[in-house]
Structure formats: C-alpha cells, structure tokens
C-alpha cells in the first residue's frame, strides 16, 4: 500500500485532521474489489466483496478464484422480502462448520439503515440455509455506514460480534429521532457493544452483551493466552 499526498514532494499539512489518503492496493488475486476474507476448516480461503456481496473461493497456490453461484446480497434481499436493501458487507467469518457475514441494510425507502448478521452453509458450491441471527434498531442517519463495525471473532463455544456506537454517546446523534431518544435511555442497547452468541443458536437475537463502551470495533481477536 502506498500513501499518496497529492502531486510533487509529500508534505504534511499544518492541521493533521485535514490529512487525506489515497490508497493503492496491489492484489495477488484477479479480483478487482475490496474483500473480507475467511478460511474454512479445510484451509479453503473465501472472500466476500465489501460493496458487491460477491462470494469467491480463492486458490492460494495458483492465485485463481471462483465466483460462487449465489450473490449474498441477492440472497438477503430475497430472504428479507425486499423490505430492506443490502448496502455494504462488513465481515465474513467461518466457525464450527458455519459461515457468518454481516452487512449494513437500508430500508426500502432509503430513509434509515441498520446492521444485520447472517449464518449460512456451502454445499456442493451453493450457499444454503441462509438465516438471520441479528438485526439492530434502524437509525435515520445515512452518513456513517462505516460506524456499524460488524466484525466477528470466536472462542470454542461462542461467537462474538461488534456493533458501532453510531455517535449516540458522543453527540446524541441523530439528535431528534425517536430511536436516538430510546437508545440513550436503553440500558441494554447494543450500540457500542460486543455481543456474545452462545452456540448453537436457537433464535434470532439470541445473545448477551459481552462488553460495552466501545466506539467502533473494526477488528476482534479472541485469545486464551494469559500473556
């Protein structure tokens, strides 16, 4: 990755908060899109397109890739009955023979968005048994899709999932919405939390709050080491 600061000699501006980056990424695989990656128990590498929902199986030996037969976004739109529209995929994760992915959903009228997580299996090259395991409250702010976090990790028995705080604690944002008012008073709000799903799941939103007070956890790692 190269950081490019405009033309000519790189210079830092006087105000560091005005600094902007243009990122150039050289991919090892012939896939021209941003991917979230995971590996199954057989060592197969899978990539899910952040902006397309395309699901690829990737061969690390010859750097080839195969587009799986079903687009995840299309599956979600069909599963949700077109009440929501897929907007951005936030993570993909493999654990205990099941795939999980998260995304930002936009309501049909485009006035609000929410975070959702799903589980699925792959059988004979096809995505099967799509199931929604989590759906957050919808908020009217459409300017911060990256603030949903939506990252996975796991230990031996539990799946962990992060939710961004969406600036509720910091600014009461969005300031005038019913959702904002309700969530600020909700002691069990999921915003700014890492959720703990004990497997196997028996129903949607079957979780406890593992930790709270986070801003926007863009990566999770679970370790049993005491060091």
Give the arrangement of secondary structure elements:
Elements: E1 2-4, E2 22-24, E3 35-39, E4 45-49, E5 55-58, E6 65-67, H1 72-79, E7 84-95, E8 98-107, E9 113-123, E10 126-135, E11 149-154, E12 158-163, H2 168-171, H3 178-185, E13 193-198, E14 208-212
Antiparallel strand pairs: 1-2, 3-4, 4-5, 5-6, 7-8, 8-9, 9-10, 11-12, 12-13, 13-14
What report would you give on this structure?
It is a single chain. The protein is mainly β and 227 residues long. Helices cover 9% and strands 39% of the residues. The protein has 3 helices and 14 strands. The protein has helices at residues 72-79, 168-171, 178-185, and strands at 2-4, 22-24, 35-39, 45-49, 55-58, 65-67, 84-95, 98-107, 113-123, 126-135, 149-154, 158-163, 193-198, 208-212. Strands 3-4-5-6 form a 4-stranded antiparallel sheet, with no helix packed on it. A hairpin with a 6-residue loop joins strand 5 and strand 6. The longest helix has 8 residues, at 72-79.
* Low-pLDDT stretches: 1-18
What sort of overall outline do the alpha carbons produce when their principal axes are compared? Answer: globular
Largest sheet composition: 4 strands, antiparallel
On the 0 to 100 scale, the average pLDDT is 82
Radius of gyration based on Cα positions = 19 Å
Helix content: under 10%
Q: Quick recap of the structure?
A:
With 227 residues, the chain is mainly β. The protein has helices at 72-79, 168-171, 178-185, and strands at residues 2-4, 22-24, 35-39, 45-49, 55-58, 65-67, 84-95, 98-107, 113-123, 126-135, 149-154, 158-163, 193-198, 208-212.
């Amino acid at each position: 990755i190269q950081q490019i600061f405009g033309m000519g000699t790189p210079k830092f501006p006087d105000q560091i908060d005005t600094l902007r980056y243009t990122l150039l990424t050289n991919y090892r695989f012939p896939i021209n899109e941003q991917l979230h990656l995971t590996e199954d128990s057989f060592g197969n590498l899978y990539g899910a397109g952040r902006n397309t929902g395309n699901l690829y199986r990737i061969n690390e030996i010859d750097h080839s890739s195969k587009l799986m037969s079903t687009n995840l976004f299309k599956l979600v739109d069909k599963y949700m009955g077109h009440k929501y529209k897929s907007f951005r995929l936030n993570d993909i994760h493999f654990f205990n023979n099941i795939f999980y992915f998260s995304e930002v959903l936009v309501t049909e009228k485009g006035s609000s968005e929410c975070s959702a997580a799903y589980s699925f299996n792959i059988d004979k090259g096809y995505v099967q048994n799509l199931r929604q395991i989590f759906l957050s409250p919808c908020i009217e702010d459409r300017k911060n899709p990256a603030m949903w976090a939506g990252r996975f990790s796991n230990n031996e028995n539990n799946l962990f999932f992060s939710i961004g705080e969406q600036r509720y604690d910091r600014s009461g944002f969005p300031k005038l919405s019913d959702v904002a008012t309700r969530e600020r008073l909700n002691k069990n709000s999921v915003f700014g939390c890492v959720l703990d799903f004990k497997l196997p799941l028996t129903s949607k939103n079957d979780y406890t709050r593992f930790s709270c007070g986070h801003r926007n956890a863009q990566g999770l790692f679970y370790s049993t080491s005491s060091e």
